[in-house]
Amino acid sequence: MVNIGLRVTDADGATATSTQPVRVDQVPQASFVFNPTAPLAGQRVDFGSTSTDPDGAGDITSLLWDLNGDGAYGDASGPAATRVFATAGVYSIGLEAIDTVGVQSFSQQTLSVAIPGTPPKSGTPFQVAVTSDPPSRSSSATSAASSGGAKTRFGVIGGIRVAIAGRVFTDVTRITRLVVRAPVGALVAARCKGRGCPSKAERHRAGPRGSVRLRKLEKTFDPGTRIAIVVTKSGFIGKEIQFTIRRGQPPVRRELCLVPGARRATRCPSS
């Protein structure tokens, strides 16, 4: 809480003062645990929220779960959820925490489900989530683009989230899930450079749910492969999020901006 005061003085020199507390909202921190930590196909898995909020536990008003990895949070609600995974594989589970003023926070984890009686898969699981401005907020950064000698100012597109998950092996990296959340109507384009990349770029238009899954890029890649995800929308500076596959380590990411009319993405303008 912050106290804001006002003092008023009239023509005779008399004064009056009024002070009121003003609340400054802080972002909640979504997190969760699950049990068992190494489940088998057909076994029930319990998920429990461990989310916190600097403004107090009561400030979190909504907890929404993504239990099928489609990027849509609504498969369950509340502090606990359960799911039985019928088949073995790597699954992505997410939790969204929303506070009293609508500020959102996300947590995501990968879950490896094994076949009963078989040893766990080799490789080290990883998950990387890149959030470019919370969906409830918009960026205030601007840039100038030249067109016919006139300068136009554009706002940077916000509300973008890229979630990538998979396994790192000794010589290759396997991407098992790649989902992009973008504003409705935005164009999501993905290109890849390196051995094993698809021959054509993948393009999608974000619909009402704002979630796009890039299934053509869910495969195995060699070290050095570069994946670029570009999100653009008319009237905004677009975002380009790059992932570089590394040997024995999770992909490293880099974020750039694409000014309308420009051929290449560059460093994002300061806010």
Give a short overview:
This protein has two domains: 1-119, Immunoglobulin-like, CATH 2.60.40; 122-271, no CATH class. It is 0% helix and 54% strand. It is built from no helices and 21 strands.
Structure write-up:
The protein is built from no helices and 21 strands. The chain has 271 residues and is mainly beta. The protein folds into two domains: 1-119, Sandwich (Immunoglobulin-like), CATH 2.60.40.10; 122-271, no CATH class. Strands 11, 12, 15, 16, 19, 20 and 21 form a seven-stranded mixed sheet that branches. Strands 10, 13, 14, 17 and 18 form a five-stranded antiparallel sheet that branches. The chain has a four-stranded antiparallel sheet with strand order 6-5-8-9, with no helix packed on it. The radius of gyration is 23 Å and the shape is flat.
Low-confidence regions: 134-149
Structural class: mainly beta
Overall number of domains: 2
- How many E strands? 21
Sheet-strand content, in percent, reads over 45%
Which whole number gives the mean pLDDT? Answer: 83
Biggest sheet statistics: 7 strands, mixed
Kindly report how far apart the N and C termini lie: 26 Å
- The radius of gyration computed from the alpha-carbon positions, rounded to a whole number of angstroms, is 23 Å
Helix content range: under 10%
Sequence-ordered SSE layout with sheet pairings:
Blueprint (H helix, E strand, L loop, with lengths): L1 E8 L5 E8 L9 E4 L8 E6 L10 E7 L9 E2 L2 E5 L4 E11 L4 E10 L10 E9 L9 E6 L2 E7 L3 E9 L4 E9 L5 E7 L8 E4 L5 E3 L6 E2 L4 E7 L3 E11 L2 E10 L13
Parallel strand pairs: 12-20
Antiparallel strand pairs: 1-2, 3-4, 4-7, 5-6, 5-8, 8-9, 10-13, 11-12, 13-14, 14-17, 14-18, 15-16, 15-19, 19-20, 20-21
